[in-house]
Design goal:
By secondary structure, this protein is α+β, with helices and mostly antiparallel strands. Helices cover 25% and strands 26% of the residues.
């Protein structure tokens, strides 16, 4: 089975402590969103789609910690995020091989964050894991 996924990437939204004030909005440079580069297949994509609860307590800090933690997994390639206007969040993590994906899945701190997510932050979610067999990219010069 082949799965093709089209993803539009955006950077992580700022944490409350990073929110620009009226005085700093014009002084801050605009950061351009960049998708994760195309890697030589095969590799794996873990597609996490979720609808969140109104409870935001601790989510930003935990999310930032998970983004830092996953970078230490050997074989981690990168991550794309997207949010629909209707509230569906999409995160795609890319991993060189199934072992790297398994190391992330079984990481103790990640498992604790998953339990808290089910208890507090998510109304619903799905996880799709796919083997990428074709990959290409484009960047305007």
């Amino acid at each position: 089975m082949k799965i093709e996924i089209e993803v539009y990437a955006r950077t992580r939204p700022p944490r409350a402590s990073e929110e620009p004030t009226r005085a700093t909005q014009t002084a801050q440079p605009v950061q351009t969103a960049q998708p994760v580069q195309a890697y030589e297949p095969p590799y794996y994509a873990a597609v996490f789609t979720a609808v969140r609860t109104p409870d935001r307590s601790g989510f930003g800090e935990t999310n930032a910690r998970m983004e830092d933690l996953v970078k230490d997994i050997p074989g981690y390639l990168g991550m794309d995020h997207a949010q629909t206007p209707g509230g569906l969040g999409i995160t795609v993590g890319y991993f060189r091989d199934a072992d790297a994906l398994d190391r992330w899945r079984t990481d103790a701190e990640h498992r604790a964050a998953q339990r808290r997510g089910r208890a507090e932050w998510y109304e619903s979610y799905t996880l799709h894991v796919a083997k990428v067999e074709r990959s290409h990219g484009f960047t305007r010069a």
